[in-house]
Design brief:
The structure holds three protein chains of three kinds. Chain A has 20 helices and two strands. Chain A is 75% helix and 2% strand. Chain B is built from five helices and two strands. A two-stranded antiparallel sheet of chain B has the order 1-2. Chain B has one domain (4-138). Classes of the chains: A mainly alpha, B mainly alpha, C mainly alpha. The interface between A and C is large, with 36 and 41 residues.
Chain lengths: 502, 139, 115
């Protein structure tokens, strides 16, 4: 039974993908199947989260093979939290509807395929969160990426292709680097099981090549997480996908990279094993600054938001570099908050684009008057992103700054404060242009009716942000528990190598 | 493409290729072979037949769209993992008692073979779909 | 053997890097393909040192002499299959780019086009 629970986040999207591949399913049926399956997934991961919190880390040994040899899936608090938030975002994005916007006329079979691909994406994302094996991490990443590649360019608009090609090429390069790193570390240690690697690295006499493979793997995941100087692909590609798809990407894809960094650089390539985190800290600070400067200069709404992703990724990896339980807690809280907030903003951006027919915020205007609900859906995540108390972004940043003070990284604190102000500034820029100023009269408005489903989606994500803000203490305790498990991996090692509590 | 040699060769080669692909599929658990290699060989048999000018075989089993192979194959592979849950662990291999057959010797059937069949079907579907798509675009 | 393998891997990586730094898009694609081969060989080389006992033992419970570690071969097979799928996709995508706007220069990829 526990086996079935641990495998369910992989099994449910896989079965949905299979159903969506069957030819001659109508678009309406696939809509229903897809939404139901996302609901089932959400229920499964909620149950998994509850079980993990009450019983401790769960493991699944595929085929009953003993850990260093077989494939193992591990669900600890961090995995369960990430699984839950990604299932929630996927569910909400499917409520928003993948057909809104210009692709409403896409033919039926293509539409079914899109649902299949979204579940393929979830399959890869969930697999990456659950796997306890370095090579399987690569495989799950590829599952996720191949789905995202097709979703990115699926309409075949010529505007999508160049950005899509940049994205594909960079990811292929990063995967090759990751695989080289994995090969080197396997040659050194003779194992790919993360827990076994951690145990063997601690006892290793000659650490040659360990740092090499650590650096290769770091660069690979830094490219996938869009860390400076590997971030250029993100603002070139995200805004070209359909709004719902880009919201899903914005919420999940880079965060899977951050998760992988969190997992590997607290378990395997730790400072205790000779890997330096100082470089990560400086790269993160550069990422924060460059990302937000890009956002300040942009007027294309979803492109502006894409630059914000980069800047926020910097905060998360900086927390990883600071190290210690408090910083890790802050990072995990930050990731959860960021996924909720960023997906909402991309969905709002999609509605604004659909209503005005233009992605340029200088052509928007008057939405505060014409649609106060939309304004609310923008204000909550925007202020949260800008770090206004009592919203979730404030708590996330406060904890990160506290961790910075504890470790005495004053340069980081100064950077974080300046970047925070610039973030707020660019959010206010969108507010002024799209919502506050009088409607632009010179721009023709094709009346695209978005219907009620987008609002249901955006409001539920806003609700989640409010839960993170007002129920911050509860979420914070969960994050603290996850961070504790990361900071002291002995529980993880025991669960994987010895059999765990269940 | 119209070539007499290719036509004759395709007529006499595609069936043996299919049989060999099934043989590879069957022996794959303990010897070189398996679902992936078998599937590639079977797909190449189909493509050989098609490219030599006969077109896709239209009758009975072969008229199924290659797109259909993928969900069926994936489904079979997933199903093969589930019986293991009863036997103790997800994806654990379960075997029926072996029996003797002429030609093949002692036969073992079990969930790993089922998994290989799933892979076999998926690979055939994928390769044929790929060939179809590229063919359509170029003509 | 190990030396020859190391030289070969190095050459492949060098050639891949050279191709990746070209402006011509087709060369970049060739670079990615070469890089895949280099990485696969690197993975293979991880099984070369026979200092470790492989996971598969003989009938007497001892490692069979001369038997290589089977795991890297399984990894390489997986990597080849994934690489095969991705290369096909990338080639088709690149072809669409050629057909659409005759882009064959990587510098044109970054240009923001008017909607």
């Amino acid at each position: 039974m526990i086996d079935l629970l641990v495998i369910s986040p992989i099994l449910v999207p896989l079965l949905t993908l299979i159903v969506c591949l069957i030819p001659r399913i109508s678009a309406k049926t696939s809509d229903a199947i897809s939404l139901t399956s996302a609901g089932v997934l959400l229920a499964c991961v909620s149950w998994l989260l509850i079980t993990v919190v009450s019983h401790g880390t769960l493991t699944l040994r595929a085929g009953g093979w003993a850990p260093p040899f077989g494939i193992v899936l591990v669900a600890d608090t961090l995995s369960a939290l990430m699984l839950w938030i990604s299932a929630f975002v996927a569910f909400v994005v499917l409520i928003y509807g993948v057909r809104s916007g210009p692709d409403a006329l896409s033919p039926g079979h293509l539409h079914v395929l899109i649902h299949g691909l979204i579940h393929g994406l979830m399959l890869g994302v969930n697999g990456s969160f659950l796997t306890g094996d370095l090579f399987n991490l690569y495989v799950w990443f590829e599952v996720m990426l191949i789905s995202s590649f097709i979703l990115m360019v699926r309409e075949g608009h010529h505007s999508q292709l160049p950005g899509g090609l940049t994205y594909v090429l960079l990811n292929l390069l990063a995967s090759a680097l990751f695989l080289s790193g994995a090969g080197l570390i396997y040659g050194k240690l003779g194992t790919l099981n993360l827990a076994d690697m951690a145990a063997k690295l601690g006892a290793l006499q000659d650490p040659d090549l360990v740092n090499t493979s650590g650096a290769l793997i770091f660069v690979a995941f830094a490219a996938k997480a869009a860390l400076f100087p590997f971030h250029f692909w993100l603002p070139a590609s995200y805004h070209r996908a359909a709004p719902a798809i880009s919201a899903l990407f914005a919420g999940l894809l880079t965060k899977v990279g951050v998760y992988a960094l969190l997992r590997l650089f607290t378990l395997v390539f730790t400072p205790a094993n000779g890997f330096s985190t100082t470089l990560i800290l400086y790269l993160s600070m550069a990422t924060m600054i460059l990302g937000v400067l890009g956002a300040v200069a942009q007027y294309h709404i979803r492109r502006l938001l894409a630059f914000h992703i980069i800047s926020q990724i910097g905060y998360m990896t900086a927390g990883l570099a600071l190290g210690g339980e408090l910083a890790l807690t802050a990072v995990i809280f930050y990731v959860l908050h960021h996924i909720a907030v960023k997906s909402t903003l991309f969905l709002v951006g999609g509605v604004l684009e659909a209503r005005t027919g233009s992605p340029d915020i200088r052509h928007h205007g008057g939405f505060y008057q014409s649609s106060p609900l939309l304004a609310l859906c923008f204000l909550i995540p925007a202020f949260s992103l800008g770090g206004i108390p009592p919203l979730s972004g404030f708590w996330a940043k406060l904890n990160l700054l506290q961790a910075g003070i504890e470790t005495g990284r004053w340069l980081f604190i100064a950077t974080a404060l300046i970047v925070g102000i610039l973030t707020l500034f660019s959010m206010i820029k969108i507010w002024n242009e799209s919502f506050w100023k009088a409607p632009a009269s010179d721009h023709p408005r094709p009346a695209t009716n978005t219907g009620g489903r987008p609002f249901l989606a955006m409001l539920s994500l806003c609700g989640l942000t409010l839960v993170f803000s007002l129920g911050g203490a509860f979420v914070f305790r969960l994050a603290q528990r996850a961070a504790g498990e990361l900071a002291d991996p002995s529980g993880y090692l025991d669960a994987v190598l010895k059999g765990g509590t269940l | 493409m119209n070539s007499l040699l290719l036509r004759i060769a395709a007529r006499y080669l595609s069936w043996p290729l299919l049989v060999v692909s099934l043989w590879l599929l069957y022996r794959g658990h303990n010897l070189p072979g398996g679902g992936f290699i078998g599937g590639l060989l079977a797909a190449s048999a189909f493509m050989l037949y098609e490219l030599s000018g006969y077109g896709r075989p239209q009758r009975g089993f072969f008229s199924i769209s290659p797109f259909f192979f993928m969900p069926v194959g994936l489904g079979v592979a997933v199903l093969s993992a589930l019986p293991g849950l009863l036997g103790g662990a997800f994806m654990k291999g379960l075997w029926l008692p072996g029996f003797e057959l002429p030609l093949l010797g002692k036969v073992h059937l079990g969930t790993p073979l089922l998994f290989d069949i799933g892979v076999y079907l998926t690979v055939i579907g994928f390769i044929l779909l790929l060939a179809d798509t590229l063919n359509d675009e170029s003509s | 053997m190990t030396t020859a393998l190391a030289i070969l891997i190095g050459l492949l990586f060098a050639a891949a890097t050279y191709c990746l730094l070209r402006r011509n898009l087709m060369r970049v694609l060739i670079g990615i393909l070469l890089l895949g081969h280099a990485v696969n060989l690197l993975l293979m080389s991880a099984s070369a040192p026979l200092t470790r006992a492989p996971a598969i033992l003989g009938a007497d419970g001892k490692p069979i002499p001369g038997m290589a570690d089977a795991l890297p071969q399984a990894l390489v097979l997986t990597a080849i299959v994934i690489g095969f799928g991705l290369s096909v996709f990338t080639l088709v995508l690149a072809r669409s780019c050629f057909q659409g706007k005759a882009i064959d220069d990587v510098h044109d990829l970054g240009k923001e086009d008017s909607p």
